[in-house]
Amino acid sequence: MTEPTALTIAEARDALKAKTLSAGELTEAYISAIEAANGALNAYVAVTPDKARAMAKASDERIAKGEAGALEGIPLGIKDLFATEGVHTQACSHILDKFEPRYESTVTSNLWSAGAVMLGKLNMDEFAMGSSNETSYYGPVKNPWRKTGSNVDLVPGGSSGGSAAAVAAHLCAGATATDTGGSIRQPAAFTGTVGIKPTYGRCSRWGIAAFASSLDQAGPIARDVKDAAILLKTMASTDAKDTTSVDRDVPDYEAAVGRSVKGLKIGIPKEYRVERMPEEIEALWQKGIEWLKDAGAEIVDVSLPHTKYALPAYYIVAPAEASSNLARYDGVRYGLRVPGENIADMYEKTRAAGFGREVKRRIMIGTYVLSAGYYDAYYLKAQKVRTLIKRDFETVYADGIDALLTPATPSAAFGIADQDMASDPVKMYLNDIFTVTVNMAGLPGLAVPGGLSQDGLPLGLQLIGRPFDEETLFSVGSAIEKAAGRFTPKKWW
Amino acid sequence: MSVDAATVRRVAKLARIAVSEDDVPAIETELNAILGFVEQLGEVDVADVEPMTSVTPMAMKKRKDGVTDGDKADDIVANAPASEDHFFMVPKVVE
């Protein structure tokens, strides 16, 4: 029999239904895999085997009674940003030490109601601020992928680095993640997995620690396009507890997987051909274009003239919103407290000790751009640029384009403690150059593996869709996946 | 626009983050690198452009102003670093 952890969600669902596998067996297989691998990969910051076993037992009982939910018995990993009742929820920050919420996020509630099993909480960049998972208080995650013939550790991307690494290394069947500037799509691209950031408003943000509220969206990271569609179907909902949650029925995303792309118009935005883009990224993009042509799609060159301003505008909007959202971490109601001479001194000492370097940097940038005299020059200007970025997309969609195809990242995974990245924060920020436009415009974006680099590392393509048209992304994504194949790392851990 | 050491100290104060004197020069350099990067927005003509207030066109949802939850004092103080009788404890604020 195939190793249970090698099954995709769709395959595990079939095996559970056919009763050739029990939820208990599947969960045990993942718990053993995590025990054996987590010391090397550091993908999980908290493992909840007792909870997982209890949930799997309940799943087996429901399966026996014929009451199985859509994700019955499927073991999942949860990014540490999601509130999970009574379980480690710290956004991988020191400032939330020992925080165990008394409530459950809407997205995870949806998953448990559908019968999914929680394996534990996944590592991430602190408060989702980072592109390498190196800002986590719990240390970096190692990418399960290494260059051919090399034993150098690489980053899995970020901020959902633990989610991507756990999915790639088969330490969970699928994972939740969040994306504010590329935090689902960039790690998916770095690990040969599939990740989708849905349209803003599709998944409830309730119970997810806020980073930049006008940009944050939850989504899944999965092994293939079909699994991503299955997970998103359950994660998405209309939620009265999030006023930006959209009043629209959740479509059957799985039905869109494998649907013909014949006649679809796929736009190729010329502005994504950036200076000094590695040749293999350009070649990958070209391959993607050929695959979609072969599948019957029409390729159209388009222009999104404000693309280059998305990243600078993002580095005003996101830190500004973060500086406001993170004001709540003051050592009074939860988490770390460092005593001080008076209350202000306590706040300052707590925040100095509790936040990591990158988080402090962003809070200070945000505080500065919102401070008296600078608001118009920075924040207001950035929000105007954001309107122009969104208008660019609206124009190409009005011209009949169904989706856009771009590379997901400007490079393959880089090394842990890369000197270039460490010396200049802006270098790290450039990782999100292709993904951040999508958040600024609130659109859905899917990262799907397109092939391997010359060094044997996964490279991803990105599909950008119309608002709430995730279905087209799943059908076009599955066409790319069919042509490119799937990629699994060689086990070294 | 760029920040100097005095601005770094002022921003740190506003953000309620203690910064040691030794750290000021490094923070100054980093903040200026980021501000230098966002400077390119100056090239964009935004005359007559409305600032974005909602990324998805939708009417703001409204709810009834009613009590829907409560009696959770234990839950609310459960994670507090210091609490007594359902109050959060902080250093003396008023003399």
UniProtKB/TrEMBL annotation, chain A:
Top EC class, one word: ligase
List of catalytic residues: 79, 159, 183
GO cellular component: glutamyl-tRNA(Gln) amidotransferase complex
Limits of the Amidase domain: 25-473
UniProt keyword Transcription regulation present: no
Domain of life: Bacteria
Keyword Nucleotide-binding: yes
Enzyme Commission no: 6.3.5.7
GO molecular function terms noted in the UniProt entry: ATP binding; glutaminyl-tRNA synthase (glutamine-hydrolyzing) activity; transferase activity
Pfam family, one: Amidase
Reaction(s) the record says it catalyses: L-glutamyl-tRNA(Gln) + L-glutamine + ATP + H2O = L-glutaminyl-tRNA(Gln) + L-glutamate + ADP + phosphate + H(+)
Keyword field: ATP-binding, Ligase, Nucleotide-binding, Protein biosynthesis, Transferase
SUPFAM superfamilies: Amidase signature (AS) enzymes
Single biological process term from Gene Ontology: translation
Subunit structure: Heterotrimer of A, B and C subunits.
NCBIfam families found in the cross-reference section: gatA
Family: Belongs to the amidase family. GatA subfamily.
Biological function: Allows the formation of correctly charged Gln-tRNA(Gln) through the transamidation of misacylated Glu-tRNA(Gln) in organisms which lack glutaminyl-tRNA synthetase. The reaction takes place in the presence of glutamine and ATP through an activated gamma-phospho-Glu-tRNA(Gln).
Protein's name in the database: Glutamyl-tRNA(Gln) amidotransferase subunit A
Organism of derivation: Fulvimarina manganoxydans
Protein encoded by which gene: gatA
TrEMBL record, chain B:
Protein's UniProt keywords contain Transferase: yes
InterPro entries per the UniProt record, alphabetical: Asp/Glu-ADT_sf_sub_c (IPR036113), GatC (IPR003837)
Keywords: ATP-binding, Ligase, Nucleotide-binding, Protein biosynthesis, Transferase
The reaction(s) this protein catalyses: L-glutamyl-tRNA(Gln) + L-glutamine + ATP + H2O = L-glutaminyl-tRNA(Gln) + L-glutamate + ADP + phosphate + H(+); L-aspartyl-tRNA(Asn) + L-glutamine + ATP + H2O = L-asparaginyl-tRNA(Asn) + L-glutamate + ADP + phosphate + 2 H(+)
Coiled coil: none
Gene3D superfamilies xrefs: Glu-tRNAGln amidotransferase C subunit, N-terminal domain
GO biological process terms held by the UniProt record: glutaminyl-tRNAGln biosynthesis via transamidation; regulation of translational fidelity; translation
Protein biosynthesis is among the record's keywords: yes
Biological function: Allows the formation of correctly charged Asn-tRNA(Asn) or Gln-tRNA(Gln) through the transamidation of misacylated Asp-tRNA(Asn) or Glu-tRNA(Gln) in organisms which lack either or both of asparaginyl-tRNA or glutaminyl-tRNA synthetases. The reaction takes place in the presence of glutamine and ATP through an activated phospho-Asp-tRNA(Asn) or phospho-Glu-tRNA(Gln).
Assembly and oligomerization: Heterotrimer of A, B and C subunits.
Name of the protein this chain belongs to: Aspartyl/glutamyl-tRNA(Asn/Gln) amidotransferase subunit C
Gene that encodes it: gatC
